[in-house]
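Support request from a user on the community tier.

User writes: "When I paste my structure tokens into the form, the page sometimes reloads and wipes my input. The last time it worked, I copied everything first. Here is what I submitted, just in case something in the input itself triggers the reload:"
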């Protein structure tokens, strides 16, 4: 009884893992409810019980990916010294360590998400919250936002295959972004305003 209950509780994860494997192998064109059911060794009805459509699966995959991104950025931020550059540096650190998955899953997911407004909603909200936090930094919100968008641009353009920068060439861009982020505390100082270290 407990084993069966655990299996039912685990089914959404099993289904999402199966959908992710399909996307990794051949993109979203093979992502059908039937294919996911076969990959997960479940019935089609078992999949539909948790995810009513392909779009629902893509939304759930996007939400899972977003949670992973949030967790990773939060961990990187916790590793930074407190101050105005902590959040931009955390975003850059996340980009440096996980901005491109070589097997193509992020590209397929990114393309599928772009066609699905519901799947985009979480990313839109995350970016709004990220920018709102940057707005709280006196005097440097615009510079911090530019660093965020430059980092996103580097990540997304790589994921989509618009560039294939590697090694020192790529490191140079990340170094420039980090230098800009580290200079934020100095830029935010103005007469009568100090930044806590």
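"...and here is what came back when it finally went through:"
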């Amino acid at each position: 009884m407990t084993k069966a209950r655990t299996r039912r509780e685990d089914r959404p994860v099993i289904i999402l893992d199966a959908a992710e494997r399909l996307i990794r192998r051949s993109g979203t064109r093979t992502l059908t409810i039937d294919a996911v059911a076969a990959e997960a060794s479940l019935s089609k009805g078992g999949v539909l019980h948790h995810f009513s459509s392909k779009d629902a699966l893509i939304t759930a995959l996007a939400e899972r990916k977003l949670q992973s991104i949030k967790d990773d950025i939060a961990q990187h931020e916790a590793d930074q010294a407190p101050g105005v550059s902590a959040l931009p540096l955390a975003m850059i650190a996340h980009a440096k360590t996980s901005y491109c998955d070589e097997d193509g899953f992020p590209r397929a997911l990114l393309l599928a998400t772009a066609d699905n407004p519901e799947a985009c909603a979480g990313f839109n909200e995350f970016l709004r919250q990220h920018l709102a936090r940057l707005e709280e930094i006196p005097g440097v919100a615009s510079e911090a936002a530019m660093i965020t968008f430059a980092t996103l641009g580097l990540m997304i353009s790589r994921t989509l295959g618009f560039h294939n920068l590697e090694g020192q060439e790529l490191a140079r861009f990340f170094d420039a972004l980090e230098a800009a982020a580290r200079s934020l505390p100095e830029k935010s100082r103005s007469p009568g305003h100090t930044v806590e270290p």
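Agent notes: The reload is a front-end session timeout and is unrelated to the input. The two ends are 55 Å apart (CA to CA). The chain has a mean pLDDT of 86. Escalated to web team.
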